[in-house]
């Protein structure tokens, strides 16, 4: 008993110290002093969560305290947000209601807490993802008060920092959801430091070995980078000192996740990534000096020391990114023959880059104009428009919201010379929808720089674009194959659903006419037989097919309704024996219920193909980082953890994710494609096949190779037993002098 009392006393002390640290950070900020309100919220939350513990074993109140600290210290928000952060789990996890919060703390705090509170059920239907529904409510509240999403990001950041205490399958779910949704939104709101940390933590838990390997390589090459940094920056410091600039210089090392992501996308090794080091020059503007001009003065000074890359000057000073980011990026050739990116920012630009939207508010409160506010308002308006068109499919909804969060912006001009900011790879159709929904729905093409182009024409920065429309034009489903912006896709899908409803209404009329004509009205409850007979998925699909004329009702449909013998579905399907398919489904469902979700499933040589399905989208092999997903057909599908499909599933159906480990003994073979690029020459094909066949004793299933202008590209499909054998093949082929790039293809 004495030990328990001592432990509780220590915990109370820890809680009080954590709260005092929060207050100290708040009082050191420029916000109004509302200590009384924050103390009231803390005491209320402390009492509400009393006796509850987190997975780590610490008192639950430590989590709201940590979230409130992130909100204040790392995002820079004030008392309203701090109170909402302290209270954010009270309604969800205790008996208190939103009305209680409203009565004690007022409407603003209550509205934010409501937006942060998870809900069950929702507009997507019974089969929908609760995660997607929760996220939708979050966005609905966010469009009214941006602080909701900022606090949610702080909440997610602390959960990621303490993810080690969660079961492995939950780690995959939370990490995947973070990488898929929350990191892009943090980026979109200008929270670059938080975005980077969320990405790295997700990467660390999803691919621990890869993360450790890259961190080790970064550490191993640190000394070399330090020498390069000193050699590169010393002449810069001398020049800026001579100019009388007040500044400081920082080195920025690319994050492990960014390095790994580039390795995956470019199919290159760590050693082939040359932009791991970047340099930031952060200056204090001189009195009366325009900070934009000062950026270019510093750039001009650097061009007298180093040669600038002609195609890598990025002017985010005069034309900020949509998230408000401002800086001048330039790339210079070092004396060692390596390109190094230099980011030139004022102190204010740097603060905005680190704290994002909260810093915008700070400077706006000081009476300074902020061009990013309009960009943010436009983005929130787009979110509202998407939410106004409810999407029945949870995955479509998440994809639509996520679209363009990371997109690079370009600038195009209207016929009157007005500038429009649009995402890179934006099409003429996307631009039409960005201006007005009517323009998009009736767009037939465009004139780009006075030349006629089709709807799917990709715009370039600086293009002058005139949208062409016709009242006879209607939205087509094929538009979704090339529309790239969230707004365009949402509006196209909404228009298609309206067209679908019209077709279904027409189909219903045709069906009723058929039933009356054939005197079959009393058998209308058997309509399910008709759509099953036509191998459709639902009554709605049948009505649409009738409406658009792809199905015309006839004598076979009459037989289906009456249950005649030649119709293959029995009149009373619940009589008789169960089909083998039904038995397999029941067996699969029982198997899933019997799995211990807290522990990984073991993938063995015996059960790999009999009990599980290898996903076609990513084709994992033994040694890959994998997970299991329990699908709608009651099967467990094995995906790579980095598979884009798995990323979506982690974000939408996270409760169906299972941790999985390989326990194979190299008895099964898998076909893996390996991409090769290099200098063409006589005998190169012979060298490749000799190494694979004779030296490694590995069989080749298929090989394609093509040479052009002295360069060759090819793909070889090898039969291997695991990832280790893939690495052996790649390492052996790298020894061929003429091969310059080699990588396993996903």
Task: Please tell me the CATH architecture of the largest domain by its name.
Answer: Orthogonal Bundle
CATH superfamily of the largest domain: Hypothetical protein af1432
Q: How many helices in DSSP terms?
A: 29
Poorly predicted regions are 119-128, 565-585
Helix content: 40-55%
Mean pLDDT: 83
CATH fold-level name of the largest domain: Hypothetical protein af1432
What is the name of the CATH class of the largest domain?
Answer: Mainly Alpha
Shape: globular
C-alpha Rg (nearest Å)? 30 Å
Count of discrete domains:
5
Query: What gap, in angstroms, lies between the N and C termini?
Result: 58 Å
Class by helix and strand content?
alpha+beta
Total number of strands: 20
What key attributes describe this structure?
five-stranded mixed sheet; six-stranded mixed sheet; 29 helices; Beta Polymerase, domain 2; Hypothetical protein af1432; 49% helix; 746 residues; alpha+beta; 15% strand; single chain; 5 domains
